[in-house]
Amino acid sequence: MLHALPPRLAARDGLTRRTLATLADAPACAIPLIDFSCFLHARDAAEKRHTADAIVAGFKQALGFIYLKEHGVSEATIRNVFAKSGEFFSLPTETKDSLRWEDPRAKRGYVAIGREQASQSSDPDEIAKRRASAPDYKETMEIGRDWDATWKNQWPAEGDAPRFKDTMLDFYRTCHGLHVQVMRAIALGLGLGEAFFATLVDQQCHTLRLLSYPPVPTALLRKEGQARVAPHSDYGSITLLFQDAVGGLEVQHPHTQASQPAVPIPGTVVVNAADLLARWRNGVLRSTLLRVVAPPAQAPGADGEVTPLRRSVAFFCNPNFDAVVACLPNCGKIAKHAPVTTEAYIVRRLADTYT
Fold it and tell me: What are the start and end residues of every segment in region (Disordered) (predicted)?
């Protein structure tokens, strides 16, 4: 894994900020760590392009994941979001259930443990069988754009969760801003020009997902096929993931099927290419499988060992719902996938995975 040196040490050793974004010395299966300030506050076009190239190279390599540091979202903001998320999940079950997720076209509301079954399958019988034998051990709260004329967010009462709504809407806007900048970097790294995706992602058709993984006997998570979240790919363009310190996220190598931990690194956001970005780029950028399991540090032990509570916050970035995702003009003459709208693709995937 590539780690950046502190600025003073880097300066002492004669290293430039551009060096912090290079992938040259990273192993082929590593998840690279990239200083995004070298794009956001580039001194010149060359530095911006170098960082953009590093991001695209990270998505092209086997794992399709990167870490971004110096991404512009303050630690105080992230801590506050995690605190408000924790307050929400601590509410009584009946209060959370009153905000129940109802429709894959909306993708808004509370999802209780075991209701979603992450999967790559589209066979309802297969998914139901897996849900019965090895359900995902997590609960979530899904939030979309709040001004949508058709689909409304489901907010807890202010008295039940003070400032929850305001905090999450502010964070939604913040993550959208980061998403726009990452998409500009991807466009530049793909040789399309920074503004290529601008009119394809400006409607903020994203999902902010708060996740809580309750304590669970570690032995249960060691059973075959069992996980806090089963292997799956994400659906949209990219995902921004903010983790706590517990760990457990793993990425599957597409060729060896070996899983590699995406260990929490303080001050970073994990970013992965998702299905629609991979389709845009005709499969050159990888939308790889991920899962959440018992953290690597939790070795199997005596009966009663418990894997601790884990919390994370995911921002699933999507193209505009009416955008047609098709092979980009500089990605070869033969498209691997038929064109599809964002809404059609995501609604189908969601309908497959929820009860």
Answer: 114-135
